[in-house]
Amino acid sequence: MAKCTIRYWAAAKEAAGTAEETVTAVTLGEALAAACLLHPDDRFQRVLGSSSLLVDERPVGRRPHGEVEVADGTVIEVLPPFAGG
């Protein structure tokens, strides 16, 4: 198991109630599952489900989260959809 940091931005930060937290996991899927256990409310789940993810500054895209490995020091960024003009 690796210790990785999840950073939340905008609506994800608001839903999580924190800017970042540390979880232990082997894959991105496990890291997100750990975050969901920490924040079991529906709002967090919805924001997480609609967010783009970066792992060590690289977009995850459509890759299955269970296939994206994490290591000690990995940083996962949760970027919800942004409104803007």
Automatic annotation (TrEMBL):
Matching InterPro entries: Beta-grasp_dom_sf, Mopterin_synth/thiamin_S_b, ThiS/MoaD-like
Protein name: Molybdopterin converting factor small subunit
Gene3D superfamilies assigned: 3.10.20.30
Source taxon at top rank: Bacteria
Residue ranges crossing the lipid bilayer per the database entry: none
